Every structure is written in C-alpha cells, then in structure tokens.
Amino acid sequence: MMISTIFLYFLTGFIGISVGSFLNVVIVRLPIMMKRQWEEECHQLHLAKHVTYRSSRQRGLGNHLHFQKDFKLFNLFYPPSHCPYCRRLIPSKYNIPVVSFFMLGGKCSACQHPISWRYPLVEGITGLFFIVLVYHFGLTFLCLAALIFTALLLTMIFIDWEHQLLPDCLTLLLLWAGLLVNVQNGFVSLDQAVIGAVAGYLSLWLIVRVFYFFTGKVGMGEGDFKLFAALGAWFGWTILPMLMLIAALSGLIGGLLLLKMRRQGRNTPIPFGPFLALAGWYALFFFP
Fold first, then answer.
1. Where are the strands (E) in 54-209, listed by range?
2. Model-level pTM?
C-alpha cells in the first residue's frame, strides 16, 4: 500500500510538471498571439478607413499597425520550442521540465543567454500543487476539477504579473468550468454558483465605479471582474466577501512590499489578479 501511494504521488508530480511545461508555453505565447491579433484588427480597420501609415504614426500607433504580408504562423504549438534570443530550436534532451534548466545551468545551450527562472518555477509549483490536490481530494471528480482550476489560475497569475492582462479566453473558461462543475453540486449548488458569478462581477464593477467617481482613476481592469465572477461560479456567492477581504489584504501587503523593493511610487500599477487567485486557492482548500 505504501509503495502504491508513493508511486501515485510520484506520477502525479510528473504529470504536474509536464502540465506546468505547457503552461509556460501559454504564459509566453498567448499575450503575443493577442497582441498580433490586435495589430491585425487595427490594420484592417485603418485600411477600411483609407488611413495612411504615416497618419497612423501621427496618431501615436506607430509600427504596431504595420502588418507584414509575410506574417508567420504563431500559436501554442508552432513554432516548436526555441530560444527567444538566438531562435535555435531546443533539442529534446534539453526540453525536459525542471531537469533541463539545471542541466544547462540556467542558460541556453546555443547562445548561453540566461533562461528565465519562471520556467522551472511554474513547472515546480504545478507539480507540487497537483500532489497536494490529489492528497486533499483523493482520486475524485472534484480533484480533477481542482487540477483544472489550479492550472488556469497559475497561467493567469503569471500573465497578469508580467503584462497586467487577464485574457478572456482564460477567465471565461474558468467561469464556465465552475458552472459545469456545480451542475451536480460539486462545490455548491448550481443556483448559488450562478448567483455567485453575477455577484462577483457586479460587486467589483460597482467598487471600481465608486472609486472612479471619487478619484477620477480606474482602479482595476475588467479582467479582474471576470476572474472574481469565475470564483463566484466555483464557490458560490456566500464566500465572496471573505475572498474579497483576503485578496484586498494580501494585495495591500504584497503591493507595499513590491513598491518598496522596486523603489517606485504609490501610483505604480499593481496587478490584482494574482491576489484574487490566492483567495481562490483559499476557498479551494478551506471552504467547507
């Protein structure tokens, strides 16, 4: 029994770091894919209005509107894994999650440029979380749901931290997944999940509107509204005040520490998505 349990956790960790490797691909490529799509849409819009490239520059859009005809295919699966600096393809023996990073000493095998620590960090965290979730929920449907929940949150945390962006394709996927999980009363009843999704979105929307009315500043983006709505869809409306309190307190403490470390002013924007994600994990593990 002990050997089978150890093997289960080992297999879970291996699957986790493999999933983390794919999450790294999404974290790096999804913002680029979205930016290219925006540039293409801007280009097509200005072509329809017969606006010249020069006038576009004068409007502050610059080279982002210059859409090349030889635009290369770029998605989550193509081109294959490569160094972002020298563009060399990464051989399979150097593409092993976590292990390859330390085998190479944290540098590209071709150009010796340093590799970001985010790669082994995401892979290691994903593997660790997968083991903890299997231990906490056992091999159940709720465990599978929690694994999906965790993978999506991890992806959004790192994208929001680097780009201050929460893609709709991730936040809405998390929201719909929460509603589907609760069709059969997974974490809460379906009616609580639906009300939680609506209440999550409207509560942050209202807070931002009131904040804008008194300060003239936009406190957070709509991606945060959708992420909070997704948490409501997973855990219902009753826990939303607690989640907001946890996210606000952790955001305040984390933001102050970050600004002090970076020696930046208080007007520096801090992404709120990672702190909402922390609150979501609290609900996942401690909500009855």
1. none
2. 0.84
Domain around 94: 2-103
- CA-based nearest residue to 34, from 231, 166, 201: 166
Q: Are 177 and 201 in contact (CB under 8 A)?
A: no
| pLDDT of 96 | 82
What pLDDT band is residue 274 in, cutting at 50, 70 and 90? very high
Assigned domain for 128 exists: no
Among candidates 172, 158, 164, which has minimal Cα distance to 27?
158
Domain-embedded: residue 22 = yes
Q: What residues contact 9, with CB distance under 8 A and at least 6 apart?
A: 131, 134, 135
**What number of other Cβ atoms are within 10 A of residue 205's Cβ?**
16
Long-range contacts (CB closer than 8 Å, 24 or more residues apart) made by 265-268: none
Establish if 201 belongs to a structural domain: yes
